[in-house]
Every structure is written in structure tokens, then in C-alpha cells.
Amino acid sequence: MAVRADRGRRALDTGRGTRRAQRAAARLARGEVSSIRFGVSELPPEGIPDAAFLDSLVEQGHRAIELPFTKDFPWKEKRCEEFGTLAAERGLRVSVHAPYFAGLTIPDEDRGRQSLAAIEHTMKLGRSLGAPVVVVHLGSRYDEDPGVLLDRIRGRLTRLEEKVSGMGVALGLETAGNRSQFGTLGDIALLASEFGFVRPVIDWAHIHAMTGGGLADPAAFGAVLEFVDASFPGWMTAPLHTQFSDNEFGPSGEIRHTEYGRGTLRVAPLIRAAQEKGVSMVVISESRDAESHERIWEEARPLLEAGVDRSGRPLAASDIDFPRPVTVTRKADRFVPEGLDRPLTLSNVDKVFFPDDGYTKGDLIQYYASIAPVLLSHLEGRPISMSRYPDGLAGGSFYEKRAPGHQPSWMRTVEVESDSMGGVIDFLVADSPEALMWFANMGCIEIHPFHSREGSLDFPDYAIFDFDPSEGATWDQVVAAARLLEVALRQLGLRGYPKLSGSRGIHVYVPLDPVHTYERVRRFVGEVGRYLAAANPDDITMEWDKSKRGGKVFIDHNRNASGQTVAAPYSVRPRAGAPVSAPVAWSELGGLANGDVTIANVWDRIARHGDLFAPVIAGGQTLDAAEQMLGIS
Q: From CA 271, how far away is CA 301, in angstroms rounded?
């Protein structure tokens, strides 16, 4: 019997765990230990219904489709919405290639504005399609200095970002294939470091041409993948969007696409390299003829179905498409992950931690291994309070602050002065994927870091407004309270960044330079909270006595006291559905609620929006002017 949660956000049924176990067994039998989606660049033929066209792709084994809007815009938004819905129902990932004329390097400003408008329109169509990325060519070099070109591109990306912010569609910059074109992977990495909505798109034929046929074996492809791993944040390349075709090339680069087999580029070495490195990747066949699509797929498919020749099994038991899936080998009653930089042993990975969903301890450990590229920057140098659930949601839980002593020798600790615990104690920190995996193996469903870092432990680098609904308060009241804070912060000249708590409320972080004491930050949050409660007494309260909160939203400014913690961004929360404490944009608050973002779907969100909490890490604010406005001395 199915039970629908509030607003239909999540459907739980008693057979879910069984079905997940069956799908997990099928994954094990297929040896699926890499996450590679193969697809084609193609528009549906005239006269063929979209549903039938997509069904044919699925029957062939494809899991992605790129729509080549390379000459014009053949579809309106309604067609895009309908096509996107059909594709999503079939598990197909949709992307769009923008028109070739829409480059970012064009010197003429009028033509440049037209190009930006075309890119913006393509991204709007991409939004209707549910596409996480729109692919564009950077454009010609025009015999100009690279610095001049980069500055021009920066200016146009700045203007574009203002138009597409919050759209949920990333801009994929494609690698150039000819020396007359601009856009090496290094150029794209530089732009991606400055613009969070930019993603790299590797055209393997272009790389092959620019290296004089250098992509001849798995090692050559692997070197490119290693460069990507070193040059881009992990969340930007989960998955890595790529394109593939055979081509002819000369001293200046690519001359033309050609039928697969006539050139020297082969897909098998790419698949082997990606599998060996555990890369999550989309491979779009950009061949100009159907026969080449088929030949590329015929060569790739057996490798994808066979997986990597490893001795182990997937760590995760669920059918979640985790980036960079981990393989483990059983040794007695323990499991050893393969390919890690630090030695680690896991236990009871098949124990069910989320009974309503069938998620296991192995799924939890895999989640933290996969989210590490995003999460670790938020935990750097911060002592961790362990919130342990050794038996999952069905068992008891407890907090553990002191490093237990049996942690691996490579795990770092930080000394923290604690009056309540009788002096200096060692707290653990998370500075590697392996450390996060160890915490999860200890039953730490959620991660609770300090608000301050090693070297400035007495000075938090953000203030937290914790909007906690009392019994009887509605989600709409929580949202209204947070929105009122947004207005107040703007008036105080401060930036705030909201995230779903993943439990019941909303957390808003105000990034700070580490120059204020905990008491000063706590006082500031309390003073602002009192103003908010005075402005909206029907919905907001600062009342400590729970019995007197009367269906209102409580602002807990004591969360800013020394030693207090809240769940980190991207932390899992110990609730049915395995929800994530997910950063959101202010514009999303009315449309998202706790439980909407989980360990299963957070990946698509990160691919579309990036790390919305990245500005929190940067700090860059003080409370001086705001305190003066509030009359705090």
C-alpha cells in the first residue's frame, strides 16, 4: 500500500526495499562499477513521433540524447517541454548544442549581443527540456591576443550570468578543434574558476586533432581525464560531458568529421580509461551518419556491459547513479575499498540504514565518497562532532566528540579547549574522501562541523540563523520568516545564503571574516532575530519556553555559541528518504521543501546549479557596519 507524503513529494511503499535489492543484484551481476552514459546527437526524423524515437534509443541501449540546434531553433518551448518529459520518463539525459554562430569571442559588439541572445534562448529551451547543460563553441581567435579574448569572454559571460542565474542550466564550453579557434581545456578551466555556471565539454575528436592523433590508447585518454580531475571542482564534472566522432585532421587541427573507422580515433580506449579511473561521463556520438553512430556504439557497448575487470563488488546496494562508484573486496567479515589513496576497512555495508527506502550503510558510505569533491571544502580545518547511528534509523543514536583512538593513523585531529569535557580534547577533521567514508562507516549519518576552523577556533567564519518551526507551525511560515531575513540582511548590507536543514527548518548562513568572537556573532543574530519577531509577531518568536511558542517559527540564536553545530551543507539527515541539507537559491524557497533533495537526486541539482554555498567559504564580510545600524555597541 502506497503512502503519499505532504504535497506528493515522496512516495513510500512497502515493496520498495525489495525492488531495490533486486535491482542491486542485477547491478552486481552486470558488473556495473562505472557511470558512463552513451547517447547520440540527433533530431527526431520527420514523421516519427517523439515517443517512438526515444523508445528506439532506449531499445538500442542509449541513455542520453543531444539535440543539435546548431543552425537555428527548430522547436518552440512547448515542443521542448513535451520532449523533455518523454525523455525523463525513459531515463534519458537531454543536452542541447547551441547554434554554431553563437560564439563568445566575436569582436563586433552588435554581433556579440546577437550571439549572447541566441545562447540565452538556447538555455531557455534547455530549461524547458530539462537539460542540465547547453553546449557552445567559444569561437574564433580572430588573430587576437589570448588575454584580449579572455577579457571579452569574461564580459559576455558576466552579462549572460545575470540573465540565466537560477535557470538550472549550465553553459558547457566545448574544446576547440582547430588552431584558428579559441578554447583549450586550460582556457575553459580558467573561465570555470570565475563563473560557476560554466562546465567543460570535451570533444574527443578535437583533442585528437589538436594533438596530432595523440589519443591512441587508454593512457592518453587517461592523461586528459587526470587533467580534468586536477583542474575542475568535482561537482563540475559529475558527470563529465563529452562528444565523440571520427575525423580527419592536419597540422592546423580538425579538417572534417568522417565515417567511423576511416580516421584513427577509437572509442574503446576512452571507455577503458574512464572505467579504470571511475569517471562519471556522458559520451555523445556526434557522427554525421547513422552507420557511424551504430559502429561506435557496437564497439562501446560490450565494454560498458562488461564493466571493469575487478575482483570486487559495488559498495552501494541501491540503484542510485552515484558519481565515481566505489568497488569493495570482501575480506572475512570486512570490506576493503579498491583504488583509494589511504587504507580503509569497512564493516556491515549491507546493513539497512533507511528501512523505508532500503538504503544501506554502503549507500551512505558511497554517498559521502561521491559528494566529497563538493563537501570537503566546507569542512576544511573544522573539528567534527560525530552524530552516530550504528544501526541506522531503526536504532539509537549518540554524539561523540572526542576522537575514539581507534581511527586510522592517517586521520587528522585538532586540539580544542573544552570546559565541559575537562580540558583539551582531540576532535577529528575530515580532509579527504576516505575520512568522510570512515565517518559514515562509524554510523555518522550526518556531519556536524564547528563554525570555525583550525588556527582561528575562537572566531567563527559565518553566522547562522536557524529557523526552527515549533509544533503547529507551517512550512509557509518558515519560508516567510527566512524571506524577511533576506530583506533585513540586504538593508544591513550583508549577504546570506539559505539551505534546507533537511529536517524541519531552514538555515541561513552569513559568511564572515574570522575576526568576531562567538559571543559577538551570537549577540548579532539574537538582535536581528528580535527585530524579525517584532516585525512579524504572528509567525516568528524568540521565546525560549517551547510551550509559549504557539505555532510560530523559533529563531535559535544559540546555534552560534562556541561548540554548537548544525548539519553541514550536503550532509545527509537521519530521516526517511535520506534527505540532504541542500543549499538553495533565495528564489527557490517557495518551491522546495525539506525532503525534496535526497541522496538520490542531489547530483542533478549540483550539475545544474553548482555549489550554491561556495560564497560562504569565501567570507569577505564583517559585522561592524550592521552592528552600528542596529545600535549594538
A: 9
How far is residue 547's CA from residue 540's CA, in Å, rounded to a whole number? Answer: 14
* Backbone CA torsion sign across 617, 623, 626, 630: positive
Residue 41's DSSP bridge partners are 66
Is the distance from CB of 129 to CB of 94 less than 8 angstroms?
Answer: yes
**Could you tell me if 36 and 275 are in contact, meaning their C-beta atoms sit under 8 angstroms apart?**
yes
Q: What whole-number distance in Å separates Cα of residue 350 and Cα of residue 582?
A: 26
* Cβ atoms of residues 338 and 312 within 8 Å: yes
Average pLDDT, rounded, for the chain: 92
The predicted pLDDT at position 17 comes to 39
What pLDDT was estimated at residue 28?
Answer: 37
Q: Which 8-state DSSP code applies to residue 260?
A: T
SS3 61: coil
Instruction: Determine the pLDDT at residue 311.
Output: 67
| Greatest Cα pair distance in the chain | 78
**pLDDT < 50 stretches in the chain:** 1-34
3-state secondary structure of 282: strand
Q: Is 70 helix (H, G, I), strand (E, B) or coil?
A: coil
Residues 510 and 460: beta-carbon distance below 8 Å: no
3-state SS of the chain: helix, strand, coil percent to 5?
40, 20, 40
CATH homologous superfamily of 462-630:
DNA primase, PRIM domain (3.90.920.10)
Distance CA 338, CA 314 (A): 10
CA distance 376 to 124: 32
pLDDT of residue 310: 58
The amino acid that residue 620 corresponds to is: G
Q: What is the CA radius of gyration of the chain?
A: 26
Alpha-helix residue ranges (DSSP H) falling in 183-341: 185-194, 204-210, 218-231, 267-276, 290-306
Cβ-in-10-Å burial (0-12, 13-18, 19+) of 420 comes to exposed
Burial class (CB in 10 A: 0-12, 13-18, 19+), 45: exposed
**Contact (CB, 8 A) for 387 and 397:** yes
313-449, which class in CATH? alpha beta
Domain with CATH 3.20.20.150 in the chain: 34-306
Report pTM: 0.84
CATH 3.90.920.10 intervals, the chain: 313-449, 462-630
CA atoms within 13 A on the CB side of 280: 18
Q: How far is CA 444 from CA 33, 392, 567, 586, in A?
A: 25, 9, 11, 29
Residue by residue, DSSP assigns 135-201 as EEE--B-TT--HHHHHHHHHHHHHHHHHHHTTSS-EEEEEPP-BTTB---HHHHHHHHHH-TTEEEE
∠ CA 388-349-444, rounded to 5°:
15
Superfamily of domain 34-306: Divalent-metal-dependent TIM barrel enzymes (3.20.20.150)
What is the 8-class DSSP label of residue 92?
P
Cell numbers for 369, please give them: 565518497
Is the dihedral angle over the CA atoms 410, 415, 418, 424 positive or is it negative? positive
